[in-house]
Amino acid sequence: MTVAEYNQCVDSYSDSLYRFILKHIKDEDVAKDIVQDTYEKVWRKVNDIESTNAKSYMFTAAHHTLVDYTRKAKKQGDFTEAVENSLKHEKHYSDIKGVLNMALDKLPDIQKSVVLLRDYEGYDYTEIGKITNLTESQVKVYIFRARAALKNYIGKLDTVI
């Protein structure tokens, strides 16, 4: 990848990369730092990366940087499944986005990552597997479990509206 292609890649994907990280950690300053670390990692490998794979490489590097950050901060959750009792509520809301964000925060990090990459960023299962170092079938299982947990948390549509 050339320097011009690197700059184009940064310009094109910086917003979506920042949103992806911010959805995970909810701290704007830390999210900016992780994005900056991601750009540094990509810059170090700029000669080894094909311009067609740049977006995937950036999101992979961001995901790994995010995992490193959560490990250092000792905030890493259990990657198996969410605790079912924490995924229920009885309140009535009218802010669907707020309810979805609360539900996403209850998911384990890996489930949250794959759901955001699939539904929020639009990656296919193979790309998500490359980004998260999971097999395609593992990605599908995590997405299924996460969506089931989200459905269980949100419950009936009457609760949200």
Walk me through what this model shows.
The model has no long low-confidence stretch (mean pLDDT 79). With 161 residues, the chain is an all-alpha fold. The chain has two domains: 3-72, Rna Polymerase Sigma Factor, Chain: A (Orthogonal Bundle); 84-160, Orthogonal Bundle (Arc Repressor Mutant, subunit A). The protein has helices spanning 3-25, 28-44, 54-72, 96-106, 109-120, 125-132, 136-154, 157-160. It has eight helices and no strands.
Descriptive keywords:
2 domains; Rna Polymerase Sigma Factor, Chain: A; globular; 8 helices
Mean of pLDDT: 79
The secondary structure category is mainly alpha
CATH fold node name of the largest domain:
Arc Repressor Mutant, subunit A
Assign the CATH superfamily of the largest domain.
Winged helix-like DNA-binding domain superfamily/Winged helix DNA-binding domain
How much β-strand is present in the residues?
A: under 5%
Q: What is the terminal-to-terminal distance?
A: 49 Å
Backbone shape: globular
